[in-house]
Amino acid sequence: MQLETLPQALSVCKLAHMRDFDPDTPFFFLGRTDEEISLVCETKDVPPAAAVREDGWRGLRITGTLDFSLIGILSRLSGVLADNGIGLFAVSTYNTDYVLVKAENFPRAGAALADAGYSIV
């Protein structure tokens, strides 16, 4: 399986209101539940009104479009990272999955995934 390194620095945020976010930014994931509004975006685009923010994330994207019948994709990725003591933040879209790791762990995560047979571009 091929993983693509995302070039941008990312942040994970919690918003108090949807109006605190500008949806015209080029890259973001927004999740809203009955308990919270969460945002993953480029660090340069974190809204000033973010209630909480965690900077210092880097991302990997599974290349291509994943079929919904595929099983264990994130499980295998997270297992490799867990076996190497690396935490993650995962986000899924309709087409694929993204795995974020803290920037200081990113080189080690890439090496561990490559050792496990993943191709990283």
Describe the structure.
This protein has helices at 73-83, 106-115, and strands at 2-5, 10-15, 28-32, 37-42, 52-62, 89-92, 97-102, 119-120. The model has no long low-confidence stretch (mean pLDDT 90). It has one domain (2-116): 2-Layer Sandwich (VC0802-like), CATH 3.30.2130.10. The radius of gyration is 15 Å and the shape is elongated. The chain starts with a strand and ends with a strand. It has 121 residues and is α+β, with helices and mostly antiparallel strands.
How is the secondary structure organized here?
Blueprint: E1 2-5, E2 10-15, E3 28-32, E4 37-42, E5 52-62, H1 73-83, E6 89-92, E7 97-102, H2 106-115, E8 119-120
Parallel strand pairs: 1-8
Antiparallel strand pairs: 1-5, 2-4, 2-5, 3-4, 5-7, 6-7
Note the overall shape: elongated
**Percentage of helical residues?**
10-25%
Determine Rg (CA atoms, Å): 15 Å
Percent strand: 35-45%
Structural class: alpha+beta
Number of strands: 8
Number of helices: 2
In CATH terms, what is the architecture?
A: 2-Layer Sandwich
Mean pLDDT: 90
Number of domains: 1
Largest sheet: 8 strands, mixed
Low-confidence stretches: none
CATH superfamily: VC0802-like
CATH topology: VC0802-like
| Series of H and E elements | EEEEEHEEHE
CATH level 1 class label: Alpha Beta
How far the N terminus sits from the C terminus, by CA atoms, comes to 11 Å
